[in-house]
Design a protein that fits this description.
The protein contains 13 helices and seven strands. It is an alpha/beta fold and about 325 residues long. The chain is globular and about 55 Å long.
Amino acid sequence: MPELTRRTLLAGTAATGAFAASGLSAQTDMVGTEPDLSGKSILITGCSSGFGRLGAEYYARRGAKVFATMRNTPRPEAEELRKLASEENLDITVIRLDVLLQDEIDAAMETVSNALRGGALDVLVNNAGIGITGPSEVQDMEATSLMFDTNVFGPHRMARAVLPAMRAAGGGQIFQISSQLGRVIVPHSGHYSATKFALEAMGEQLAYELVPHNIDVTIIEPGGYPTEVWVNRNIYSEALQQRAADIHKAGYPDVVARMGEEDGSGRSADPMDVPRAIAKIIAMPAGTRPLRQPVSGGAIPQTEINRVAAETQVGWLGGSGYGPWIKAVHGR
């Protein structure tokens, strides 16, 4: 049987069962055979902690050349990662990059281009993101702008930065780190779901448009994990609580009183699930990778939404001029 790729899909090869062939289920078991990432170049945003930091170490240990970016360097987290890379002889380059700042993105991409001798990155992991909780009415424009700038506009800036070289190279891969809350909504989560819904839509549109360029896009949808996202979220949420106008806070006294007091310590899922999921998808043949991959130590409430959304896209546009792209992405 010929290898299933997006190129063969566009040529009319049947793609039924592409997800089954991928070997990744919705409730993915990420423990098992460790993929070989030798020869892959990977840039990750938000590597000071959490999925970004764990991923930088893991991909490098699997043989990848990693560009681990983080904002506000020099900082202890950057030096710790450099020290680790030196001690373990890992190919990790730590770069200053704030996804809000185009000049830092441009400088980082110049560093990457020089390191790759003008070549293209194989993989971009759009991991940097923030959360600010509380009722929607309480979210002032400072909080709202920061959330959208970090979680939506930042990944868009990064995609635009890497895509010209990926297109010229004839392939590549982009991961959007979304959330279960990019498909379902919990009240009083601020604009977190709004930003992740936007990130998911942007990632899906990119996936369709990049089929002719053999560039895959996968949206990772983590559940709740015990990373430092809770610490940072509390800092932002408490600051919002302190400055928010009383006229807006008055409608939600109990909720507002708890802003900045989230506790993620009771979560026991292994945060390494996410880097392992990404690594396994990187190792899959181009054109067979899933558009969306839930990763969770518990419930995955968005699974049915993902299924129905895929069927709707194919049913709506599958017979149009966009059909080959839509079907290629959804494995139909």
